[in-house]
């Protein structure tokens, strides 16, 4: 992202004319700061001016987000969500919290889903995105075993409701 956006000059036009590129997916600068080395971080001003250059070259801009780590948002990266909402963490069948990139991955069957939606709507509005690349949830297997995630209370309840809603009496008749 840094290479494409830092002092981009005529790069957007070159990419459009030479290769036919017309779309880019980027992290907002406040999230990019957590995934890039210090020397490769973009200021908000540089990010915004680069977006302008790419749009002038005909590009559509998609912003990266996710549910499992809120698109590397400051609230997730700084551990705010982990401290304030431990119940949002994905869990394996043994009750172990799933951690990738340092903090618990968040489960879409909890309040984390609405938090992710609100965060994503905010970055879309702030940066005028044409769309969102919403990363998959990537349910994982816990480091200590315990099967694939997620077995949190929210997922167990949602799964039971789904199965009963879909199969109802048939489920009871065949499985008891």
Give the gist of this structure:
With 176 residues, the chain is mainly alpha-helical. The protein contains 8 helices and 5 strands; from the N terminus they run H-H-E-H-H-E-H-H-E-E-H-E-H. The strands form 2 sheets. The protein has a 3-stranded parallel beta sheet. It has a two-stranded antiparallel ribbon with strand order 3-4.
What can you tell me about this protein's structure?
A hairpin with a 2-residue loop joins strand 3 and strand 4 (103-104). This protein has helices at residues 2-5, 11-19, 29-35, 44-56, 74-77, 80-84, 112-127, 153-175, and strands spanning 23-26, 60-65, 99-100, 103-104, 131-134. The chain is elongated, with a radius of gyration of 20 Å. The chain is mainly alpha-helical. The chain starts with a helix and ends with a helix. The longest helix has 23 residues, at 153-175. Helices cover 46% and strands 10% of the residues. A 3-stranded parallel sheet has the order 1-2-5. A two-stranded antiparallel ribbon has the order 3-4.
Q: In sequence order, what are the helices and strands, one letter per element? A: HHEHHEHHEEHEH
Number of strands: 5
Largest sheet, spatial ordering of strands: 1-2-5
Low-confidence stretches: none
Radius of gyration: 20 Å
Note the beta-strand portion.
Answer: 5-15%
Number of helices: 8
Helix/sheet category: mainly alpha
Biggest sheet character:
3 strands, parallel
Please state the average pLDDT score: 90
Separation, N- and C-terminal Cα atoms: 54 Å
Quaternary structure type: single chain
Report helical residue fraction. 40-55%
Gross geometry: elongated
């Amino acid at each position: 992202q840094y290479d494409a956006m830092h002092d981009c000059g005529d790069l957007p036009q070159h990419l459009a004319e030479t290769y036919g590129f017309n779309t880019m997916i980027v992290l907002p600068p406040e999230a990019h700061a957590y995934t890039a080395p210090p020397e490769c971080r973009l200021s908000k001003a540089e990010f915004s001016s680069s977006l302008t250059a790419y749009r002038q070259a005909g590009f559509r801009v998609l912003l990266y987000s996710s549910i499992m780590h809120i698109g590397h948002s400051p609230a997730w990266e700084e551990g705010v969500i982990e401290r304030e909402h431990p119940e949002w963490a994905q869990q394996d069948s043994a009750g172990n919290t799933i951690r990738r990139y340092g903090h618990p991955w968040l489960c879409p069957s909890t309040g984390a889903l609405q938090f992710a939606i609100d965060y994503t709507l905010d970055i879309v509005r702030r940066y005028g995105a044409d769309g969102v690349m919403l990363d998959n949830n990537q349910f994982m297997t816990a480091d200590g075993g315990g099967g694939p995630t997620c077995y949190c209370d929210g997922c167990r309840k949602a799964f039971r409701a789904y199965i009963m809603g879909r199969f109802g009496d048939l489920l009871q008749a065949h499985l008891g």
